[in-house]
């Protein structure tokens, strides 16, 4: 008789290893699904809208692939200017629309630069 208790011990060890492997695989699938759901809920933007009402302000709405919506409102009194900004990403220049907010302490200054739309690198690249 061997250390595992004969044929029954070998069978039990084999079943136990198979069960451990399937539990590891199930955990990996579960974690992957959680990551995908998190990506769809928090990252993947399906549609973005911009509503500008001159006397009130600017409303930016992002609709995610999961159906979640996120809305940001900026009062017109806080807006200094709306500009098209440029940035260098990797070896390309990308352009994006952004809002410059007034600095409440120093009115001629800028307190924050708010990008209006999420920059999709493949759609906004400038090719030469």
TrEMBL record:
Regions that span the bilayer: 23-42
Swiss-Prot/TrEMBL keywords: Glycosyltransferase, Membrane, Transferase, Transmembrane, Transmembrane helix
Protein's pathway: Glycolipid biosynthesis; glycosylphosphatidylinositol-anchor biosynthesis
Top-level taxonomic group: Eukaryota
Family per similarity comment: Belongs to the PIGH family.
Protein name as it appears in the record: Phosphatidylinositol N-acetylglucosaminyltransferase subunit H isoform X3
KW Transmembrane helix (keyword) present: yes
Segment forming the signal sequence: none
Matching InterPro entries: PIG-H, PIGH-H_dom
Residue ranges of domain Phosphatidylinositol N-acetylglucosaminyltransferase subunit H conserved in the record: 49-118
Source taxonomy: Eukaryota, Metazoa, Chordata, Craniata, Vertebrata
UniProt entry tagged with the keyword Signal: no
Entries under Pfam families matching the protein: PIG-H
Molecular function, one GO term: glycosyltransferase activity
């Amino acid at each position: 008789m061997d250390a595992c208790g004969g044929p029954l011990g070998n069978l039990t060890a084999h079943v136990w290893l198979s069960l451990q492997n399937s539990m590891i695989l199930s955990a990996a699938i579960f974690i992957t699904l959680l990551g995908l759901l998190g990506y769809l809920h928090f990252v993947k933007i399906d549609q973005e809208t911009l509503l500008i009402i001159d006397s009130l302000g600017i409303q930016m709405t992002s609709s995610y692939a999961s159906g979640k919506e996120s809305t940001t409102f900026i009062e017109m009194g806080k807006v200094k200017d709306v500009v098209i900004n440029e940035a260098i990403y990797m070896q390309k220049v990308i352009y994006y629309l952004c809002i410059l907010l007034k600095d409440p302490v120093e009115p001629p200054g800028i307190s924050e630069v708010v990008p209006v739309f999420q920059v999709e690198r493949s759609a906004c690249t400038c090719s030469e």
